[in-house]
Amino acid sequence: MELKVQCDCGQKFKFDVEPANGRMPFAINCPACGTDGTEKANVLIQQSGYVGESLPVAQLVAAAPPPPIAAAAVPSRLRINSTAPAASAHTPPPIAPTPAAPRPFPGMARPTAPAPAEASGKKPPNFWLGLVGGFLGVFLGATIYFLVFKYSGHRIGLLGIGVGFLGGLGAHFLGRGEGSKELGGITAILAIAGIIIAQYLVALGWWHEAVRDIEDAGYATSVTEAKEVVKAIPTGSDAEIKTYLVKQATDDGEDAKSVSDNDVKEFHDKQLPEFQDLASGKETKEQYFAKNNIDPKEMKKVADEGESTFKGIFLLLLLGKLNLISTVAAAGLAYRMTANA
Length: 341
Fold this sequence. Notes:
The protein has helices at 38-48, 117-120, 127-152, 157-174, 181-216, 219-232, 238-251, 261-280, 285-291, 296-304, 307-318, 321-338; strands spanning 2-6, 12-16. It is mostly helical. The chain has 3 domains: 1-64 and 99-123, no CATH class; 127-215 and 318-338, no CATH class; 218-293, no CATH class.
C-alpha cells in the first residue's frame, strides 16, 4: 500500500510498504528534518484497516524487560528460615534483553535518518516564499513576452513556454524545493494568467493605434509621405521630378516611358507645393481635413463604435492554435518544476 505522511515541520513524503500485523515493518524518518515518523505511519495503517503479512511480534517491536511478578494476595503458609545469599562483589549485574531490530520490508533497505535541517544549516521549505517566487517569475516572463510580442508583432510560442519556466523556477528556488501539488497548481494558474494579460495588453495597444489612425484620417501618413517626396526632390528641378516619377512608375509596374513632360510640369505646379506645405507643417491638420472634406466628429464616432473590433482582435490572439498549445505547455512546465514532478 502507499502511505503519505506529513511531518510536523510541514514536509510531505510518501512511500510503498507492506504492513506486518497492521504496523510498519521498519522505521521511517522525515527527509527534511530527520524526525521519526514511524508512529504517524502506524496510525495511518490502522485507519486504513490493512493488516498485511503476519510476523512474530518479536520482529516488529522492541523486546521490553518482563514486568515484575506481583505478590500473591494471600500470604503463603510455607516459611523457610534460610537467609538469602548476599550478592557477591564479583556477581555481574543482570543484563537487560537487547531490543530486536525491526524486520525490513523484503527488497527494501532500511532508510537512514538524514541530518536535521537545523544541524546541516539548510533552511526548511517554505510555501509562501515559493508563492512569491512563482509570482515574480511569471511577472518577469510575461513582461518579456509582452515586449517582444508588441515590438516584433509576432507571437513566439517558445516565449509563452518561457513564462511557465520562469514561474516554476522562481517557485522552486524561493520555496526551497517545497514541492507541493498546491504550490504547483497555483504557479500553473499564474503562468496562464500572465500570458493572457500580456496578450490583452498587446491587443489593447494595437487597438489604440488603430483608433488614432481612424481619428487622424490619414494626416500623419500623408505628412510622412510628403517628407519622403521633398527629400527625393530637394531642389524641385524638372530633372529630379522626372527621376522621381519614373521610379514611381517602375515600382507600380508601369512603363517608365509613359512619363511625359506634361506630367513633370503638372507635378511641379500642383502636387509638389502640396507636399512641401505638408512636410513643413504649413498645412495644419484642420486645413487638411477641410480640404479633403473630413469631419473629425464623424471619425471619432467611428473609432468609438469599434469596440467589437478590439474584442475580436483579442479573441483571435487568445484562441489561436499556437497560443493554446504554448499556454498549456507553459502551465504544465510550471507545475512540473514547482511540484518536483
